[in-house]
Amino acid sequence: MNGRLAARLAAMPLSGRIGFALVLFWLVVAVAGPLTAPHPVGKFVDEEVFSPASAQHWLGSDYLGRDVLSRLMWGARYTVLLALGAAALAVATGTSIALFAAIRGGLVDEVISRAMDTLISIPSKIFALVLVAAFGSSLALLMLIAAFTYIPGNYRIARALAVNLVGMDFVQVARARGEGAIHIAWREVLPNMIHPLLADMGLRFVFIVLLLSGLSFLGLGVQPPHADLGSLVRENISGLPQGASAILSPALAIATLTVGANLLIDALKGGGEA
Amino acid sequence: MIGQTSPAVEVSGLNIALDLPDGSSRAIVDNVSFAIPKGEVLALIGESGSGKTTIALAMMGYSRFGATISADRIRIGDMQIDALGERALGKVRGSRVAYIAQSAAAAFNPSRTIISQVIEPLIVHGLASRKEAREKAIGLFSALALPSPETIGDRYVHQVSGGQLQRLMAAMALITDPELIILDEPTTALDVTTQVEVLKTFKQAIVASGATAIYVSHDLAVVAQVADQIVVLKDGRMVEQGKAGDLLRSPQSDYTHSLIAAARPVNRAAAPDEAEALLTVEAVHAGYGRVRDGRAAIPVISDVSLALGKGCSLGIIGESGSGKSTLARVIGGLLPASAGAIRLGGELLAPGLAGRSREQLRQIQLVFQNADTALNPMQTVRDAIARPLAFYHGIRGAAADARVAELLDVIQLQPSLAERRTSELSGGQKQRVNLARALAAEPRVLLCDEVTSALDTVVGAAILDLIDALRRQMGIATIFISHDISTVRAFCDEMLVLYSGRVVETCSKAAFSTPVHHPYTELLIDSVPALDPGWLAMLGERHAPAIADTPADEALCPFLARCPVAIAGTCDSQPPSLRETAGMRLLCHAVQPQLASEALNQ
Questions:
Q1: Does pLDDT of B587 surpass 50?
Q2: CATH entry 3.40.50.300 includes domain B277-499
Q3: H-helix or E-strand containing B437?
Q4: Is the whole-model pTM more than 0.90?
Q5: Which residue of B353, B376, B377 is in closest CB contact with A178?
Q6: In what order do the strands lie in the sheet with B364-367?
Q7: pLDDT band at B89 (very low <50, low <70, confident <90, very high)
Q8: Residue B449's closest chain A neighbor by CA?
Q9: Which residues does A contribute to its contact with B (CB < 8 Å)?
Q10: Does the model's ipTM exceed the 0.90 cut?
């Protein structure tokens, strides 16, 4: 497995290797960050607010005088794990339903597709507000909300891909052989749509980061003193005129994370093709 | 130096090399030279990958995939193509050199009217006003024997037939009165009957325009009809060159011999006579849309019956749209029949896949026409072949690997190919893997749907030989579906001719060689080009079938509108009668099959 991964990496274009490095970096930060952070996440460590980078505070301090580096390392955990988890959940669910609908076709497809159209029309923030108001904010709930919001969008894309593939001769061959729906979905159809699906997942990931930071801004997302990368940007927005490191570094973090994820996905070419 | 005898087109020492990423280059065309006198047609013939299209495109100074062209000379009339820059070439392309591509359907823009695209070369090169161009186009349409030439140009691509579209594309090429016309496999995608019509009009149009032409094809018989000279290519090199007649009569190289042999399939011995019926299809109807009283809203095949003996082979012949692929899908269960019965070894099969047992499914295997789409591009050759082994026979692991190697050996592929993805194989290799996958199930009936139509002649002939040999060794009954009657008659013990979803004739191999047939069968037989330069001219005017709709009354003969021997008062008022004799059944008022059995007995 390691040998194959190394071989895949070696075969990747430079952009792909950069993407892989960025994603790996953020995964490491997400896992190990809180353990190695120099200060506790909510501790006020600086007299000054929006102070620039210094020897004590590598990335300066935020609008309350807290250490930006420490907050960033904690925030990465929420953004990477929560958003990635939600994106993976949304894509897995949406694609599974899409495959089911595409392979069954007919009335089943029609009913599911119309139901998904209905879900798409629910405004995601209002929906999240209602659920958080009803159940109280928790990380699991946030992940579910974010995933649920992006299932219909992924369903649409996955279904469009799957419907084209289901009409292909090799799927007909599998049907004629008597294969069940699961084999057709998993072995015949899915491998041929994995690349655009990954690209879609990258897109959903970026959307979810934005949704979660929006929720945090409203006070419904990750609860203070913790914050995800999106809320770090929001809470330090008043530092923007001064070009404070407190707002630039989380923004840069989101940028490197999402760009890295997309570079990596683009480099994971669909197998045999050039 | 350009005197009166100087040829119109001259190419000498043409080399085309592909620049590889590692800095080296690979020759795809190597030292090709030819000359074409004015008004003559030169054919470039060879398999795919022989460089024939690449050479043809080089005549316009164009190369694909970033290949570089170098030549001692490429001259068309007074133009040195190899010396022209990109801007000057732009003036030449589409005006003095015209190109007719293989697939007209892909070459036309579906969202614009046809005439606006046909006159485009004149407008783009500023050679005529829109009104003049239109008049000229309409003149060409009637010269190319298109129906209602005044208005056909105002239609869109989907509103005309494939043969018409190919002729419309010829009009687009001819409209600027080019000095050189390049025809790149212009009839390969057409039915045999349409191909004859298109060939005929192309030939007349080329003669009438006085242009010089290059005809690219893999089909020697087609080339024989249009070409004055033939250049045989293999792997980018010239194998042989000569006058068409001489080259076909007395080919010098082994390769040309093999091409000619592949174009003339050798007759195979028939299977034992009294084989018990293995697969029977009884009065089957099928189609698309809602089914009412056993009839689909859009019927595709109606009242089809056939019987296939153990180890026998049956050929199903018809043009595209005749329902032959649909029949295969119905037998395979992919499209449930709306009425009728299908029996395998006496056992009644459910119409749909869901009602059939795995064992029943295993016994009938389909080999799809297009191996490019019939194999999952993400799977390796091993995955593709091993799946039916595991699915039907529970063979997994090392035993499966051994069986895959065995099957690869049967289909004559290197065992090392097992690890390759199917998308990395050549067309012929894919079709072999496609076949191996069906064989892995150990079927009793193999349905081969146009298995060679996407392949080169030589490769296709090899696949057919292989299927035929396997049928004999393993006793697998086969159904060959094809539009190519010459292949089918060589390989099959029995033939069934479909027209518009109905069986118009079934006959045995012996009866097939008699001259008595359904008029549609005759049309098909006469449409297969012979390896004889005089064939097209000899065909004359006898066959000019209008592509017509079937009669509104479905009880009447479906072929009525195209039938040259229809009896007025009988054929247009009474359903065709079934005429039956030893080895032959046909639906026709006009033809007496008894004559066939008499001819056989003599």
A1: yes
A2: yes
A3: helix B427-440
A4: no
A5: B353
A6: B364-367, B445-449, B477-482, B313-317, B494-499, B502-508, B584-587, B578-581
A7: confident
A8: A169
A9: 168-170, 172-173, 175-179, 187-188, 191-192, 270-273
A10: no
